Amino acid sequence: MHDIPIFTTRRNLLALGLAGLLAGCATSGEPPKPATLSRNDDPLPETPAPVMPAMYAALPDETFPIPAVNIKQVDPRYWRQVVDYPTDEKPGTLIVDTPNKFLYHILPGGKATRYGIGVGRDGFSWAGRAIVAYKRAWPKWTPPDEMVARQPSLQPYSIANGGMPPGLKNPLGARALYIHQGGRDTLYRLHGTPEAFSIGKAVSSGCIRLLNQDVIDLFNNVRDGSTIVVIPDPSKRQQLAA
To answer: Per the record's keyword annotation, is Cell wall biogenesis/degradation included, yes or no (predicted)?
Structure first.
């Protein structure tokens, strides 16, 4: 009986080596990494960066020019888009879906403009039904006294000291919508942020943050007096309002 010769080529060795590496990755708890060699043993091209949507381009004509969004830091599902959203709420209503990190601006015909948002972290969240009392472009920021007590470094921006002037470093960003309930300020805001990485996360001290480009779009399409409904996140402690 004759032995069958085994022909070992460079390609066979590479394939065996890759298989071993992939097995090692799998046992380490990490997802397997795809092979990076083509049929000619040449590296495959890297995945191209996402194309910048025009809606997230720079806004050089703003009072304080706004740079383009770093969209690599934002999951595409949080990009602004019009979606199906059947609801009994009338057009013009804002619905903040805290658990899923979306804000919906209700449109006619069962549609809504959906925005990705960053929400309040545990212990600093608010939920309920209220109204958008008024809006401001490039607002000052005046942290409430309770926040200043927690963070004394904010004292220079307290109400007594006139707040922080508007600008790109102002925590309220390019626009802010102020939420009132029963004629009183809830201290809850919808506002802009340049921190793209925070969208889709629970990071703020109770307010809802949107990309500056998104909050400008929202600002331009929401009327004073519009209803806002904030859905609580059942996994977090919140200040609930009737």
So the answer is: yes
pTM: 0.76
**Could you give the CA distance from residue 19 to residue 33 in angstroms, rounded to a whole number?**
10
Is residue 163 within 8 A of residue 155, CB to CB? The reply is: no
In order of 43, 120, 159, 200, the CA distances from 169 in angstroms are 42, 19, 18, 20
CATH 2.40.160.10 for the 80-138+173-239 domain, yes or no = no
Active site residue 2: no
Residue 60: the pLDDT is 98
Model confidence pLDDT, tens digit, residues 191-217: 999 999 999 998 876 789 999 999 999
Q: Is 53 exposed, middle or buried (0-12, 13-18, 19+ CB in 10 A)?
A: middle
25, 105, 180, 191: the catalytic one is: 191
CA-based nearest residue to 199, from 59, 51, 72, 54: 72
Cβ atoms of 219 and 137 within 8 Å: the answer is yes
Q: What is the pLDDT of residues 31-65, one digit of tens each?
A: 334 444 445 556 656 666 678 899 999 999 999 99
Q: Domain boundaries in the chain?
A: 80-138+173-239
Whole-number pLDDT of residue 233: 82
